[in-house]
Records
---
Amino acid sequence: MNAQGCDLLRFLHDVGSLQCSFSASFARMTVAPPGNSAAPRILVVEDEGKTRESLAEGLRLESWHVETAASAASAVSSLSDHPFDLIVLDWMLPDRDGIDVLRTVRQRGVHTPVLMLTARNSLNDRVIGLDSGADDYLPKPFAFAELLARCRALLRRPNWTNERLLDCGDLQLDTRARVAVRAGQEINLTPREVDVLEYLMRNQGQTVTREMLEREVWKQSQRMTSLDNVIDVQIMRLRRKVDREGDERLIHTVRGVGYQLGRTSP
Ligand code: CA
């Protein structure tokens, strides 16, 4: 067996041992239901089926909401559909490599922390990974406990949510002074419009649904009456102020779903 095959076996063995201990403790652990909005959302991108499912199963036992992607294309598509709190990204994928995915999502302004997984472990590879926007790097084979510890560390880390200055093209928002400027000119926004703009800018390049705005901006977790119309009107007003005649369009409608802020339309 070649070195790569041995590595894979060691990794699967690690995952297998963990699965045994998971099974023993499964009964007393609570798995987050898919609709649990407070649970961190993790995207696992790995083409090898058994590894992908073992990773997803292990991470779900942390009560995290886990989605999986088996290719670069499906990872990029998931990332444009929903915001995630963490991406576990395999380097070697069948269509494009993980580094390509990483560069694409960073270019779109997605700041989600990324943990790269790879059998490649030369210094040069690690430098390429980190320079392309990865936040951490874990060579295969690895013990699941270490992966978990690194995921927890990345989820704890103060990241883009603490960033004070946000920008997209010639639009800037100072989230502390609550002042938005486009092409050097201040935009006169109401407090609610600033809240909506900040949420859209923090999730730029990703689709923001009306439900997300309702929950995160209007702070309504129970849908007593739908706020869809209120949200649509608010976005219409915000868009008139942000995307004026002749400006590059930054606030896009995602038909039937919600909105997306970014330099390219979804
Ligand atoms: Ca792979």
---
Amino acid sequence: RQGPVYRSSTTAPVNIAVIKYWGKRDATLNLPTNSSLSVTLSQASLRTHTTASCSAHYAAHEGDSLLLNGSAEPIQHSPRTQACLGQLRSLRSSLEASDPSLPKLSGLPLHIVSTNNFPTAAGLASSAAGFAALVRSIADLYALPQSATELSRIARQGSGSACRSLMGGYVAWRAGSAADGSDSLADEVAPPAHWPQMRALVLVVSAAKKHLPSTAGMQVTVKTSSLFPTRADVVVPRRMQNMEQAIRARDFDAFARLTMQDSNGFHAVCLDSWPPIAYLNDVSRAAVRVVEAINQQSTDAGAGLLAAYTFDAGPNAVVYYLERDTERVAGVFRALLGNERVEGWEGSYGQDIKPAEMEE
Ligand code: PMV
């Protein structure tokens, strides 16, 4: 069969939440029980690169395919990937209906090739960057006019946190209240240039794929944790407001306190679940103690907090700090890692990561 190959490539960065998404009110549409807020990290260190292509040359019987880090993923059996592909196709098909001169791409099989420059599924938010890059590359291939916020509705259905990786800087995912998820969208609270001194240090405690997947964990927490309703209904809505205020005011002391409180609150509802979910290990707790020691020195001297730890659904630590405190935060961790005084570290990724600028 004749015809060109249409192709588009993009990269999407990882985002690390400072107010955590934990709990689904609708598991099919990935609608959250609470809003969340994250910092999108620079693409230099943690990102997914994705190329989407389609062509009449591609064998129709083989259908759509996804190669992730060199291995074929069974996307035919992934309702989440299918939801994203189906919605992107239907937007393209409406475009084609309104402009008959456009090539009919919506009917062609898609080949998607994706690579991460960091360990997949190690609690480093690979699914967030992965689904954001998938949605963005196909939206570009299809020349869709939808904004990043509109595309966040689609990426959300791949992986909830993916909706926050379509924007750079400081990004909120508003839980919304509509049953169809039409108002459960991400928006940019502040661009990276608003607070460019922000840095993150990612400490890889374990790159192994062994933690409980987030969807399964969330369901157990929502069903069994007695602390959970207070977190979702009372604590997080207030914290979202305070966090947005801290970001607007570039108040690192408040940002750091809220970040650590929310990470601890999230891990507390995990431990309060039955069976209990424990994502942190002894090495994670050692990282907490290092951050506490750094902050103690600073507060003893009458200054504010210098560092904030946060942990997702795994043992790896992300530590936020400001550029001016690089030596006092990243320097301390570097010295500890370099001297191998903390057993169990597998290394660090993207030290001194800045908030991302998104390419248009
Ligand atoms: O997007 P998911 O389903 O992988 O869930 C992510 C959940 C956390 O990373 C623990 C929190 C968050 O808001 O990113």
---
Amino acid sequence: MPPSAIPEPGVRPSEFRFHCIDCGHLSDSTSPDYRCPRCGDLLEISFPEWNKSGLSSRASGVSANDLKSTWKQRRLSSAPADLSGVWRFRELLPALNDGYVVTLREGNTPLYEMPQCARIAGVPHLAAKHQGMNPTGSFKDAGMTVAASFAHHAGYRWIACASTGNTSASMAAYAARGGMRSLVLVPEGKISWSKLSQALDYGALTCQLRTDFDGCLRLLQELVLRAPVHQLNSINPFRIEGQKTLAIELMEQMEWQPPDHIIVPGGNLGNSSAIGKALLEMRNLGLISRLPKLSIIQAEGANALVRTLREAGGKRLISVSAETRATAIRIGNPASWKKATRVLEATGGACEQVSEVEMAQAKAEIGAEGIGCEPASAVTLAGLKKLVKQGFVKAGETVVLILTGNLLKDPDFTMEFHRGDLFAGSPHESEMTALSMLRRPPIVLDATLDEVLRTLEQADKTAPSG
Ligand code: F0G
């Protein structure tokens, strides 16, 4: 089978460098672990020409308005890179020297109005950008198309990641599309079957390690120094570049009028870092005139960033031993904590935590809106309720939630919730009775018309009013 990478002559070579987020060291190349050769901290991609050219875009000197109309026009094109909701914004991405793009038509995700959830949260206007509508069902695809394309271009045979499930599903798909092999390291028993099954079907070599996500990531960091595998976790700064486009596309969908708040779940903290980087770059390039506040919500049982900010003033990471049913964000030692801390500072955002029950309730409420998401994504609505109560989100302010994963990613959680046995035998069990109004358990009946009619009539009497 020939690799299905797509030559894309429209992608221009661009000037970018690797910039250490701590010591500021600049370089043109990196080591396989994507760590600063001087101090060992994380790297980010910087575009030196942008700083020189101020409001105009890099090199070509086109204005912010030119960029906006170019991106709009590409919606009419059928070129593969233009059909991608990531590569459509390629002027703000590091471009490939030889122009190879591995794409599954990622991005182009919907921005949904959420009137019922707005009422519940107590805000006049709420929308959700649903990254779970990406090809493999999560926001990871936006970053993966960029990182996988660069890995493919560099000629890597193997790409690898540690994952709580979504990264591995996405990476396996892009590896297959780019003619590469993929190695997946996941914590045994702690990822959903849906995600695991995706990696298997896309052909990954899938290893379930007897450890947690943090243990998998530690092992991967050592592995890439010993074996010719290329790591595609969000430590890889190309992933961050791709994930930036979520925010660019969101601004385009909002006619370049930023909302007052964007709220995102926090796990390994790559996504919040990417959204923050995009917002700052868009402001610096004159694409938007003000910054939304970007807030990060974590599960109480995986609250490393919350504790890092509250107990150490954001100066050093406080790791935790993570435990939550939102397995996607069951992470205790987030790699990008420093980037995320800076993004919160730069945008004036908040960092909050929510309980397991608050998350389960919010997930059911997002589902009842006809949208749905996986548990980790639902922390955004649960967090918003808290931020409204605290007065951080004020009356009249506009809010966008980032829903990171599709409802179908974790059917066990959803089924257990509706059957009423989510958290059975745990300390949260008694709190769940308060949520019984949200439950819609399946009903087993004899296959007779009478039985179904009687059930329908009963339900009609008790149906919640719209
Ligand atoms: N939401 C979902 C659905 C996720 O899968 C993840 C992370 C997050 C939120 C948190 O994003 O790590 O950028 O802060 N999932 C990773 C994975 C860790 O391996 O799939 P983050």
---
Amino acid sequence: MSELVIKDLHVSVEDKEILKGLDLTIKSKERHALMGPNGNGKSTLLAAIMGNPKYTVTKGSIELDGQDVLNMEVDERSKAGLFLGMQYPSVVSGVTNSDFLRSAINARQEKPISLFKFIKEMDKAIEQLQMKPDLAHRFLNDGFSGGEKKRNEIVQMMMLKPSIAMLDEIDSGLDVDALRIVSDAIIKTQEETDMGLLIVSHYARFYEYLKPTHAHVLLDGKIVVSGQADLVDKVDQEGYEWIEKEFGVFA
Ligand code: ADP
Ligand code: MG
Ligand code: MG
């Protein structure tokens, strides 16, 4: 059982305050949808949780199972069980996908994973995501299509088995079939590992597949409305204007 607890989080980027007192708790097995108009701080939140040095936490706390995440180095955060599937995964030439993943897994455990077990798990993940089998041996994200990069983020999630996984617009640019395949893989991984999920997306269709247990709207640096899956439908039908009006915020 894991729990990520964020309290009164304030984050600045280049001396501009982006998050202005954000509260959020995510537990094992939960699926949180995080929505909000562009530029309101969703990616900033995820970057701050992972310890991206461009994002300065000026106030508040982030704890994972009672441990102070803000005191951890970036690699300690992922070892502690945090994972970010990125909107724009970076290309790493010269490092194969499988080498990258094996060292990431080995960095998290005392005994290195056996080659046999690693290959078995990687094959399973690649098959689940319906990706080309040669993917393991290609340089990380090098020459991958947009959709392949996104699927590859999910392969990494499946292999690393985080306790809390955050996915930033992982559905953008996926065709309908890929969306279904990625959603199924996310759900299956969660069923097998009990991870907690924080999913940033603009699209009701993705959430229809994923069936969030909680939904939130981030506006002007704070979570201003929380609810359940019906909040996703309301935003899909009515947009954010009703919330902006209610809170006097015009993003
Ligand atoms: P969202 O993900 O909700 O669309 P972001 O967190 O990406 O929003 O951005 C929130 C605000 O912070 C925007 O005004 C954006 O320009 C700014 N911002 C985010 N990251 C950076 C960065 N690395 N450098 C400069 N400004 C940034
Ligand atoms: Mg954005
Ligand atoms: Mg974003």
